[in-house]
Amino acid sequence: MKRTQGKTMFYLILIAAAVLVGVAVAAEPSVPVAQIRDRWAQINYQTPKPQREAAFMALSKQAAQARQAAPRDASALIWEGIVLSSLAGEKGGMGALSLVKQARDDFEAALKLDPRALDGAAYTSLGALYYQVPGWPLGFGDDDRARQLLKKGLDIDPNGIDANYFYGDFLRDQKEWGPAQAALQKALAAPARPGRDVADAGRRHEIEAKLHDVMGHLAK
Description:
Helices cover 68% and strands 0% of the residues. It has 220 residues and is mainly α. It has two domains: 1-157, Alpha Horseshoe (Serine Threonine Protein Phosphatase 5, Tetratricopeptide repeat); 158-220. The longest helix has 22 residues, at 197-218. The chain starts with 8 loop residues before the first helix and ends with a helix.
């Protein structure tokens, strides 16, 4: 089922027009995917909001280099897609449409290479795009498709923090308060990921905020 247009003003603005980003400079050495992952966490959770767009723009160029250096590496495609999605969220306005479309293309390409890469992160990340982006005629969002993809991510990583967080947030978006509570609580109880302290702490803060909102609705 296609999502109706104008779900929120943010998403209406988010895909207003197109912009070209992420062009790698061939002469520069590529950055390891793990470094892009860690830098993303620093920007997303520790960088002040006024500085985040420029930081994600710079990181998108490094992510493009990593993807071009290893075009058959699903993890490089996934992290480029995540960086572009985050940049789109910060940029909004006239600059987001091509970013979310390129992110979608990266996730789809990663699924063709290795659906289980990074514990199914391509399924989870692509599912998140499908419920966050409005549907036709403004965008490609589709709640049914989002649910399908998010469940596939959960099948691969049933106890993972991200897989459960995004599924819980999707259920919250659908006003399925009870199942949303269960998914978010499971996300909060997920085991720590080695070397991902910043990302885990930031994600748990997001989970707690969403869970507080869900609990408020359940209490009514």
